Amino acid sequence: MPAPPWELDLQALMGCVLQASQEILEVYGSDFNVREKDDASPVTQADERAHGLLHQHLTTQTPHFVLSEEDQSSHAKGLVHLRAGAPVFLVDPLDGTKEFVKKNGQFTLNIGLVVGHQPVFGLVYAPVSREILCGWRDSSLRQGWALHGKISATEGRGSEIKGVWSTRSESLTPQPVLGGGFEESANGAPALAVSEELGSARRPLSIYLSGSHRSSEQERLAAEGVHAQFHRLGSTLKFCRLVQNGLDNAGDLYLRLTPTSMWDTAAGQAALLATGGGMISLEAPQGEFSYARETLLNPGFVAWRSSVPPGVVQKVLRALKPVC
After folding, report:
1. Per-residue pLDDT for 25 more than 90?
2. pLDDT tens, 215-259?
3. Does this model's pTM top 0.70?
4. Which of 37, 176, 214, 270 could cross-link 180 (Cys pair, CB 3.0–4.6 Å)?
5. What CATH number did the domain enclosing 103 receive?
6. What are phi and psi of 137, to 5 degrees?
């Protein structure tokens, strides 16, 4: 398995992530204060301490621009770099601060690298459960490697990663759904056949939703006849559920209609795409989820694991079409 391109030292980066994780857990176990940022979102000392470590590492060990949620001064310039297609790290030192404050463990540390408007590398780490998701695609975007597992602390020997690496060697471009956008066939019927099993009463979809934001996904899908079991989970852990094949809490889709920012999705999306999964915007005319935008805010989206048939994704999109 080759090392990630783009001048990334994965071992050194993972060491920094574990160090930042310790800073987060130190605050997590204390009687910490919560403040509000200008956008009314919460922030704690854990966000700031993790940001300091990650920002210092990425700016000194790589040549790429770093756009971090906790560095307001990087936002405008980072958007310029993203629109130009230049390599940009999108960093959320503590994704799921609301979950952090609730002390339910459902928060992550996210590092995504976007090149040419697309996420090509992603690392997600959950400090409480020690869950890790890491994936990248090569410069051709036709090969991908991903790891999902856990970090185990080994006394006297530091930490070890225990997980399963997966390799994808074929084209990693997701199959088109609804003609690549939201069009229907001439007679109004679905352009692709919907699986008779997945999404049916016999085999309901496993769909992940936001843990802290409520919206109308469930009602819309039920009205379209999509059978699903819904799970609410905080932070980028929802992307992790789309790559953990064979486990009880594995997910088929992640639906998001409520607001997120670029740093909330880049890392998870990069790892998902490396496994052959897909993600589509609910607002772009052709569905492309591009990071060449005027704002840091994301459109609504649907993400799915690699084994979900295009017809199933299509049926879900048809149910959500009224909000597009």
Report:
1. yes
2. 677 778 877 788 888 898 999 999 999 987 655 678 999 999 888
3. yes
4. 176
5. 3.30.540.10
6. -115, 155
Whether residue 85 is found in the same domain as residue 229: no
Characterize the bridge pairing of strands 301-304 and 253-256. Answer: antiparallel
**Residue 195: other Cβ atoms inside 10 A:** 16
Asked if 250 and 275 sit in the same domain, the reply is: yes
Q: Show which of 149, 168, 187 is a domain's final residue.
A: 168
Q: pLDDT tens digits, residue range 138-172?
A: 888 888 888 888 888 644 455 677 766 666 655 45
Could you tell me if residue 188 is left (phi over 0), alpha (psi between -120 and 50 degrees) or otherwise beta?
A: left
Which pLDDT belongs to residue 179?
Answer: 37
DSSP H helices, the chain, are 10-28, 45-61, 75-84, 97-102, 217-223, 237-241, 262-274, 310-320
With a pLDDT cut of 90, the percent of the chain lying above it is 56
> Which of 53-59's residues contact partners 24+ apart within 8 Å by CB, and which partners?
53/16, 53/19, 53/20, 53/23, 54/16, 54/17, 54/20, 54/91, 54/93, 54/109, 54/111, 55/91, 57/12, 57/13, 57/16, 58/89, 58/91, 58/111
Chain mean position to CA 263: 9
Q: What pLDDT sits at residue 199?
A: 65
Q: How far apart are CA 122 and CA 204, in angstroms?
A: 29
Q: Which amino acid is at 54?
A: L
Q: Tell me, yes or no, whether 107 and 155 share the same domain.
A: yes
Asked if 135 and 119 touch (Cβ cutoff 8 Å), the reply is no
Regarding whether 57 and 191 lie in a shared domain, the answer is no
Q: Does residue 220 sit in the same domain as residue 239?
A: yes
CATH number at residue 196: 3.40.190.80
Confidence band, pLDDT 50/70/90 cuts, at residue 212:
low
CA–CA distance, 302 with 321 (Å, rounded to integer): 11
6 and 115 Cβ atoms separated by less than 8 Å = yes
Q: What are residue 132's DSSP bridge partners?
A: 125, 149
Q: Does residue 5 form part of some domain?
A: no
- By mean pLDDT, which of 59-68, 191-200, 217-226, 282-291 is the weakest? 191-200
- Domain membership of residue 214 as a residue range: 178-323
